[in-house]
């Protein structure tokens, strides 16, 4: 059920079809190169793109900009304690800042880190410490059609095989990413989290939860895990996060702000070490690269994120978009995740091979037909992996309404009707680092 009304609005425009064609060409068929004003419904990411509440805007004005000992930091500490259950917080400019602080503190060259699935920046920060990131998703995680309640889970069997192979002494840290962004935003059960905790104890590793979307994950737990059928989202969040030794958090997701992040822990020694690294890379440990006002808004956002009305409305919106797309025959990853609907471009364009980038073709066609922007997460973003050809339509929090989603569905239906006429794309220029190519590479249609 809808939980908001609008108090401030932002004008959007749909450029003409001819203009959209020109924009695509100018952008080198890469939606990252489009200006936001050229986009009508922007589903590129749910990160930092949501709407703040009136309470958050009020907190923003009261933000304390003191370099040290800011009152806004105390508000954040108190929110993290109440909502997430941790007593120490090290703020950072955003999630990847928190990754740098925590992983730079915990890892050394040659270490192996196991995660249900590393998000891009997580993988890059682990590699940056000359450590080796290994994914252990459960079977079926990359199957867009398999129906299961917790496809985001961490595979204990997979992790045991890695430890048998490399030796427990080389695995100082394991991570569970909730929800699992790189496997279609799928949730992780509390039972799975408990088992990861036991496993971490067994091999004497630090257990980190990447908590970016912890509230959405907790909502799925209340809906799908019998033990928590009568629990509140706030109760589940505290229970689940409580199994970790430390959290990395991007406030741009379930912190409901446009910028910010943090590390949280109860471990005094780890806290002290993280503070030192934050001074080096982020700022003094009571602001960590954020303005005091953003810290204050994030403190409010964390509390709002576990309100039932908010999170139910949020996840329902995504489920409704997925259902509307399925009704018109657009293939989507099922069940839908917590922050995005993932379209199956491989199923949509069976005539295109992976090296013709069916996902990127779908991204371009959605823009061409309706000014809708999504992001490719298939062979263009992840060269040489056997992931499905997915396109993510990530939904910013508290931002779009039914009419926007109806437009997205109409647009996708039009692309579906024309699917046999679309041709593949080829890369014309790409950056040196292959892991980052989808952000800046340029393409052009393959002329037949
Ligand atoms: N961890 C996960 C699971 C994420 O999804 C992200 C960001 C980060 C860490 C890094 O946080 O952006 O604040 O530095 N995900 C965004 C996305 C960018 O579009 O999925 P950040």
Automatic annotation (TrEMBL):
Keywords: Lyase, Pyridoxal phosphate. GO terms for molecular function: tryptophanase activity. Its cofactor is pyridoxal 5'-phosphate. Its EC number is 4.1.99.1. Residues 42-409 form the Aromatic amino acid beta-eliminating lyase/threonine aldolase domain. InterPro entries: ArAA_b-elim_lyase/Thr_aldolase, Beta-eliminating_lyase, PyrdxlP-dep_Trfase, PyrdxlP-dep_Trfase_major, PyrdxlP-dep_Trfase_small. Pfam families: Beta_elim_lyase. The keyword Lyase applies. Belongs to the beta-eliminating lyase family. PANTHER family: BETA-ELIMINATING LYASE-LIKE PROTEIN-RELATED, TRYPTOPHANASE. This is Tryptophanase. It comes from Natronorubrum halalkaliphilum.
């Amino acid at each position: 059920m809808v939980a908001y009304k609008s108090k401030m609005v932002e004008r959007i425009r749909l450029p003409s079809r001819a203009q959209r064609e020109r924009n695509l060409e100018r952008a080198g068929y890469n939606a990252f190169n489009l200006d936001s004003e050229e986009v009508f419904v922007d589903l590129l990411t749910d990160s930092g793109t949501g709407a703040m509440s009136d309470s958050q805007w009020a907190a923003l004005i009261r933000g304390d900009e003191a370099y040290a000992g800011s009152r806004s930091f105390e508000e954040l500490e108190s929110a993290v304690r109440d909502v997430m259950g941790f007593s120490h917080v090290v703020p950072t400019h955003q999630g990847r800042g928190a990754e740098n602080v925590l992983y730079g503190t915990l890892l050394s060259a040659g270490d192996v880190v196991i995660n249900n699935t590393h998000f891009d920046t997580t993988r890059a920060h682990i590699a940056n410490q000359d450590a080796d990131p290994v994914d252990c998703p459960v079977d079926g995680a990359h199957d867009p059609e398999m129906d299961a309640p917790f496809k985001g889970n961490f595979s204990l069997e997979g992790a045991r095989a890695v430890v048998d192979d490399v030796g427990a002494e080389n695995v100082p840290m394991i991570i569970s990413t909730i929800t699992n962004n790189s496997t279609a935003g799928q949730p992780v059960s509390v039972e799975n989290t408990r088992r990861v905790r036991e496993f971490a104890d067994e091999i004497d590793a630090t257990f980190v939860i990447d908590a970016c979307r912890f509230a959405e994950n907790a909502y799925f737990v209340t809906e799908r895990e019998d033990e928590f059928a009568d629990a509140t989202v706030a109760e589940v969040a505290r229970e689940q996060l409580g199994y970790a030794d430390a959290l990395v958090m991007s406030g741009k997701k379930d912190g409901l702000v446009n910028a910010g992040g943090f590390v949280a822990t109860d471990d005094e020694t780890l806290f002290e070490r993280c503070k030192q690294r934050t001074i080096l890379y982020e700022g003094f440990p009571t602001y960590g690269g954020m303005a005091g006002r953003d810290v204050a808004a994030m403190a409010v956002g964390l509390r709002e994120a576990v309100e039932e009305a908010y999170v139910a409305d949020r996840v329902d919106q995504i489920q409704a978009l997925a259902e509307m797309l399925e009704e018109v025959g657009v293939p989507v990853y099922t069940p839908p995740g917590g922050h995005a609907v993932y379209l199956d471009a491989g199923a949509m364009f069976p005539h295109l091979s992976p090296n013709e980038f069916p996902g990127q073709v779908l991204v371009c066609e959605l823009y061409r037909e309706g000014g809708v922007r999504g992001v490719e997460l298939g062979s263009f973003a992840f060269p040489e992996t056997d992931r499905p050809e997915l396109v993510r339509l990530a939904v910013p929090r508290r931002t779009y309404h039914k009419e926007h989603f109806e437009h997205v569905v109409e647009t996708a239906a039009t692309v579906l009707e024309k699917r046999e006429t679309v041709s593949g794309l080829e890369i014309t220029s790409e950056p040196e680092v292959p892991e980052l190519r989808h952000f800046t590479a340029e393409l052009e249609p393959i002329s037949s």
